[in-house]
Give the backbone structure.
Amino acid sequence: MNNSKITLDALTVIEAIHKKGSFAAAALALHRVPSAVTYTVRKLEQDLGVSLFDRSGHRAILTPAGAELQHQGERLLTAARALEAQVLRVSTGWEQTLHIAVDNMIPLAHLAPHLAAFYDVHTGTGVQVLQEVYGGSWDALVTNRADLVLGVPPAGPMGGGYGMRALGPVTFVFAVAPQHPLATAPEPLSDETLLKYRVISVADSSRSLPARTAGLLTGQEVLTVPTIESKITMQEAGLGVGYIPHHMALPSLKAGRLLVKEVESSREGGTMSMAWRSGEKGKALNWFLKRFESEAVRAQLLTTVSP
């Protein structure tokens, strides 16, 4: 049997060029000399008898054949990396990488001391932190993009198989900028009044589960932004209104950059939880589960960031 002309190393090089946009940038990212990257690509092109990159411009652009190779190769690389992680887990019990998804309602600053304590253990496990919105946290766990999620609604996807612990309650306030017309409008604000004004909404980051929305009225103009932080910025600028988690709105409220308005149909709060796949036994995951055993430690994740 002939050896395959496509190697994982070659796929890694193709992936790096595609992401970085040039051979030189890819070489830097891979810690290789540019000539080695060029040789790998040319050798693969010769072996396959196709051109993988259009080099006529400033950026290295994939040809249709190259794009197909990159797309399918990405799946192979993902599988290979998963296999490496599994082998390492079997041999040492420590994951190669632990993926933690954090809902946007949890300030990432609150995770920093826990990460610092984990790195002090010198386990060799890398950590990748993902930031998700609404259903994105559950989606990250269900699709294996994350091993641990901090900040999910208690009602999980169908099928079960997840361990959960409550983090604490989240309450919402309807906030407007002092210069916004609704700042001086009589309260409580009716739906009919709110429909006249733009609302700022954070996009759900879910990739496979149904996307969620909250606090929107049918027919209302919407400005969609990627994070709650950007939502707060837009509302402070008077570009729109909407509900904000109280613990995240508090600094803006204290500084007078936002005002709380009472509405007739107020948005109910809820409980946020942490979740993980119950069958996982990696030592890094268990370290974090033990770290968050304390109800007080978990509740601290949903508090205001100190100035």
Summary: The CA atoms of residues 65 and 86 lie 32 Å apart. DSSP finds eleven helices and twelve strands in the chain. The longest strand covers residues 162-170. The longest helix spans residues 64-92.
